[in-house]
Write a structure and sequence with these properties.
The complex is a heterodimer of chains A (113) and B (222). Chain A has 113 residues and is of the alpha+beta class. In chain A, the strands form two sheets. A three-stranded mixed β-sheet of chain A has the order 2-1-6, with helices on one face. In chain A, strands 4-3-5 form a three-stranded antiparallel β-sheet, with no helix packed on it. In chain A, α1 crosses α2. Chain A is elongated. Helix content of chain B is 32%, strand content 22%. Chain B contains eight helices and eight strands. Chain B has a seven-stranded parallel β-sheet with strand order 4-3-5-2-6-7-8, sandwiched between helices. In chain B, β7, α7 and β8 form a beta-alpha-beta unit. Chain B is globular and about 75 Å long. Classes of the chains: A alpha+beta (113), B alpha/beta (222). Chains A and B meet through α1, β1 and β6 of A and β1, α1, α6 and α7 of B. β6 of chain A pairs antiparallel with β1 of chain B. Bound molecules: zinc ion. Zinc ion binds next to loops of chain A. Chain A: Belongs to the HypA/HybF family. Chain A: It holds the Pfam family HypA.
Amino acid sequence: MHEASIALSLIGVATEALHQHGGERITALTVRIGQWSAVVPEALQAAFPAAAEGTPLQGARLSIVSVPGVGACPAHGPVELQLALGLRCPVCGLPTPTLLQGDELELDELELA
Amino acid sequence: MTSIPAPRIVTVRQNILKDNDRVAADNRRTFQSAGVRAINLVSSPGAGKTALLERTLKDLQGQLGMAVAVGDLATENDAARLRQWGVQAEQIVTGTICHLDAGMVQAVLPRFELAALDVLFLENVGNLVCPASYDLGEAARAVLISTTEGEDKPLKYPTMFNTADVVVITKMDIAEAVEFDLSLCRENIDRARPGVQVIELSSKKGAGLEAWYSFVRGLPLP
Ligand SMILES: [Zn+2]
């Protein structure tokens, strides 16, 4: 369970952005979590309110967008990966060692007040 | 009537772990300029990280300058076990945190004389999930899996295996007794990380250690 640590890092990055944009507090935020990032969205959602307490993000609405993995198949180009198949093209089974997306752990948008 | 200002939406697009990654980059520069190869060891609890380290320290003593930073939730036991081989072992007590991060490693580095070292082992907390997200600035990440854990670990923890530079299968001496299916395990590892080097060994009996030692030395393999 490292989602508590991730939540604290998220609050740090968001607070920095808040100050850069001259806002008072954050009322909502969107993060993008790749399915290959080892972070469980539900666990992050659960950890967030306690981590946000006493910060400018207290009470903010957290939206999590889960980003599926996309690998580069040598034969089929970009293909959506399935966790159970690993880094293999679901069509032909060739290795797709390069992730085109799906490992992100990203603060995307903030709603400032 | 006062008008309520509309909420302002701003696009940030920033890596949540950017602070960790910045410190990891610092660590990497520190290791590179001192000529130290840092190896991050990750596995489930009980997969045999400490046993493999003990054996490695014993066998490579006098050939390589080695030291260990050990991440553990509370105790000092592993570091004490490793010190008996005459190397410096520093404990990083992580408290409730289930992984090492780059800052914890950076904080312990001043205790080592890095210029005198060839290899610094970073023994991570026993956990196959959380350490995957944290770059420590290591040169290589070694993922250990023991024959007692079953063959499907690589599919259950794809991210950890996906970031491995080498996968070490430990406790091969009891593989038969626990009915471990080696070819299935290798197939699953190759799914999670196509083409990754896999080393099978037994720290207890000593089988397969040469391949691991070549990896530790950073030598190209035959
Ligand atoms: Zn394909």
